[in-house]
Amino acid sequence: MSANFYYGVEVFLNGLMAGVMYSLVALGFVLIFKASGIFNYAQGVMALFAAMTLVGIQNGQVPFAHLINAIFGTHVKEFGWHVPAFLAILLTIGVMILFAFIVERYVLKHLVNQEPIILFMATIGLAYFMEGFGDLMWGSEIKKLDVGIPQGGNTWIEESTAFLGGEEFYGFYIDSLDIVAAIVAILLVASLVLFSQYTKTGRALRAVADDHQAALSVGISLRTIWVIVWSIAGFVALVAGIMWGSKSGVQFSLSLIALKALPVLMLGGFTSIPGAIVGGLIIGVGEKMFEFLIGAPFLGGATENWFAYVLALLFLVFRPQGLFGEKIIERV
Amino acid sequence: MNEMTDNSTVGYMTDDGRQIGGTMMEMKNITLRFGGVVAIEDISFDIHEGEIRAIIGPNGAGKSSMLNVISGFYHPQEGEVWFHGTKRPTTRPYKVAQQGIARTFQNIALFKGMSTLDNIMTGRMTKMKSSMLSQAIWWGKAASEEAEHREKVEEIIDFLEIQAIRKTPVGRLPYGMQKRVELGRALAAEPKLLLLDEPMAGMNVEEKEDMSRFILDVNDEFGTTIALIEHDMGVVMDISDRVVVMDYGKKIGDGTPAEVLANQDVIDAYLGVSHD
Amino acid sequence: MLYREAGDYKTSYAKDNQTFPIKFDRVAYYVLLFVAFCVVPFFINDYWANAVLVPFLIYVIATLGLNILIGYCGQLSLGTGGFMAVGAFASYKLMTAFPDVSIIIHILIAGGITALVGMLFGLPSLRIKGFYLAVATLAAQFFLVWLFNRVPWFYNYSASGQISAPERTVLGINVTGPNVDAWAQYMVCLVFVVACVWLARNLTRGNLGRSWMAIRDMDIAAEIIGVNPLKAKLTAFGVSSFFIGIAGALLFTVYLGAAEVGEAFGISKSFLVLFMVIIGGLGSILGSFLGAAFMVLMPVLLKNVLVGGMGWPTDVAAHFQFVIVGGLIVAFLIMEPHGLAQLWRVAKEKLRLWPFPH
């Protein structure tokens, strides 16, 4: 087979990897939507904020340094210490849990009975708020995130597959980071599915997702569940933030990943955890293959900006509930 | 039961001397399924012009689903709907509305963002013909049409005695008032067939008497044919001409209120017997 | 006592339906129009025009358009930036291809083209609802920006990918280009605003407006009582896109003068106009004014206070702005989901009774 064919396969494999990365973000959305019916646009910014906080803690940055400097005319920047990666991650998880508490108390509690569109717009507002807040707290310059995950093309894979495709082909180039991300994603999904199916809290979560009133009437505290869910989503956001941040640095564009997660959700259904993975894979592969086969040669490239949405759109027109979502039966 | 083909165009006289017209609507062997659940199973009945037809039965019998089939919202997997002697093709609900069928809903379906007046004006939707351009510049037909239909709507407001709440957003109205506004919206369409889904739900005796009076007046003054779902047997006995009884998606009774009351199947399924 | 309806009764349905039933409001409205047309042009300067008034007027039109779609018809759209781009590029192509035709005509036709594009991208709304639809409109947003970036025909094959508005005049006065007077920019936008508001008011109070609101409130019941959902949704997309296209054309020709599609019409633009709609008040024409005013004035105010007054660096001020806007959106949605317009309405209710408490 020609080298081109194997390049195609490489694009496919990389598409799968990209898809996994999307799924990581989509997972956070699914969790929150399942438990509270809210489509949390802020999930992407949460990933950015978590990554920024992680880097900030690791590097001993002074929070709100720029603001303090602006008000008091000082020039503080760093505390001077370095926190090891593992501890920094734990502390960041703590921050995200605190964030979940605050969001529940000051935002969610007050919006309980509103229509979905209002809730969605509230999360857009929250996203903007977190964006500005995160920038004020840690500064908006690009930061390097390093928690020790191997990066760069995996040489073992490259060398062992170089024999395919003749002289023009140099072996599959697959980033080690992507492989780690895939493993992490699988572990995360597995544990989330187990959690939701087999633990008491998981069952309570599913009850809340189905019917708030009924859940209340059997003694489930909605507020506790929401804090738990947003904390888990915060943790998932941190994982996504670490993966994406390691790959391309911690910067504003990380929050735009949320926008990419949307077509993933449309394909996989908003309420399905496995759907987030499958949807992510389909979008990842679809995007990359379309660009490789049609976008770059015929359309001038950069089709990845919009292809995912058009794909999801077409899908939705023919199957409005996505692949795994519940079929919507309208009653009147 | 095979009344449907026998009395096809022939009317009848009720016990109290009202002349009922020929068949207006016929449901023939309707079967409606949702996935594995059979909501309606092989039901046939007819509605005659000018009559008040009650549909009764326990909860979950499929009564609202039947109304949804008549409105064109649900499409039965089997069976046919005949309106004024022609078979109705599978069509969208708004086209059914244009044919002269209006309805109220079990859980009030008013437009909460609008006032009473605007809600009832939406009932005139099928009658308003001015083009978008004319509305955009508010010239000619649009303006005059608006005033003309407003007059008709005011007549209905008078009829239902809801003048005081004309400009109130309906979300703020008490339940009983909302039900009346919904009836007003249905009446505004000047329908040939009016479908009422539990119009007396949640009302006390006085309110039920008011609503019954409205329903009888509508039938009497405007000649509107009425099909209503109702649980209160006293109301059913008093105001309806004929009754269909449904249970678990099947028809178990069809006839005048007296006939149906005496039907053993109906007694077993729904009415029960009084224990003295 | 001043602001009352007592003694002011209506003798015809037409009078009952008018926009300003209270006499005080009517008079105030005429005074405002007089000031806008006959007083401001004489006092306006470049700074006020460019920083505040012209963008305000342009965004009023865009907000009006988006409000019709989201506030009146309940169809969520995140494609506003892309549609503004359609208006801008359409006007650019028309102006460069037919240099002798008046710019006003070009802008109107650009609006029409945007309406058609809007209806096309609105077709999925027949099958998709709620935020699924929002995602579909994102497809429009990203695709359109990509299109105007990648297909050189749209920017007349210029090397930079930027489009520049050629100099044009209306009644002999410059309205575009580097030599334009502040008051001319202002007047052109003002005339468009008045026309658009008039159209919007007429459409929303008639049968079409009611059918939009019916779809928004209960789309199934709406169809059952006779609203044709195809017609209602597509006209909402069409009218909305018409307004948004005009706003985009004006933004490009009169205000910016030159534009690069990614910067000027990206997704942040879609969110900006969405915020104007929410803060101003969904489903309200007055709300469109209030929301646009808020989002245009606030950065100017913040910059003057924080950077000018307190000496903060501009990036910190910019972050602060995000915090405030985001926080206000959440606060508004919690306290008053119907936005500034509702606050205004409540204030007026209280004023009608003043000085009595109830």
Care to describe what's here?
- The complex is a heterotrimer of chains A (332), B (276) and C (358).
- Chain A is mainly alpha-helical and 332 residues long.
- Chain A has helices at residues 3-36, 43-58, 65-72, 85-106, 116-138, 155-161, 176-198, 200-210, 212-217, 222-248, 257-268, 273-298, 307-318.
- In chain A, helix 1 (3-36) packs parallel to helix 7 and helix 1 (3-36) runs antiparallel to helix 12.
- The longest helix of chain A has 34 residues, at 3-36.
- The mean pLDDT of chain A is 82.
- In chain B, the strands form 3 sheets. In chain B, strands 8-9-10-5-11-12 form a 6-stranded mixed sheet, with helices on both faces. Chain B has a 4-stranded antiparallel sheet with strand order 4-3-6-7, with helices on one face.
- Chain B contains 11 helices and 12 strands.
- Chain B has 276 residues and is an alpha/beta fold.
- Chain B folds into 2 domains: 1-100 and 191-270, Rossmann fold; 110-189, no CATH class.
- Chain C is mainly α and 358 residues long.
- Chain C has 2 domains: 1-7 and 19-43, no CATH class; 45-270, no CATH class.
- Chain C is built from 15 helices and 4 strands.
- The longest helix of chain C has 28 residues, at 229-256.
- The model of chain C has no long low-confidence stretch (mean pLDDT 87).
- Chains in contact: A-B, A-C, B-C.
- At the A-C interface, helix 3, helix 5, helix 11 and helix 13 of A face helix 6, helix 9, helix 12 and helix 14 of C.
List strands and helices in order, with pairings.
The complex is a heterotrimer of chains A (332), B (276) and C (358).
Chain A lengths: L2 H34 L6 H16 L6 H8 L12 H22 L9 H23 L16 H7 L14 H23 L1 H11 L1 H6 L4 H27 L8 H12 L4 H26 L8 H12 L14
Chain B lengths: L2 H4 L5 E2 L5 E2 L2 E12 L2 E12 L3 E5 L6 H9 L6 E6 L2 E2 L5 H6 L2 E3 L12 H7 L9 H6 L3 H20 L14 H14 L4 E5 L7 H18 L2 E5 L3 H7 L2 E6 L2 E6 L1 H6 L1 H8 L5
Parallel strand pairs in B: 5-10, 5-11, 8-9, 9-10
Antiparallel strand pairs in B: 1-2, 3-4, 3-6, 6-7, 11-12
Helix pairs in contact in B: 4-7, 6-7
Chain C lengths: L12 H4 L6 H21 L2 H27 L7 H18 L5 H20 L7 H21 L12 E2 L4 E2 L2 E2 L7 H24 L1 H11 L1 H6 L4 H28 L1 E2 L1 H4 L2 H14 L4 H25 L4 H22 L3 H15 L5
Helix pairs in contact in C: 2-7, 3-7, 3-10, 3-12, 3-13, 4-5, 4-6, 4-10, 5-10, 7-8, 7-10, 8-10, 12-13, 13-14, 13-15
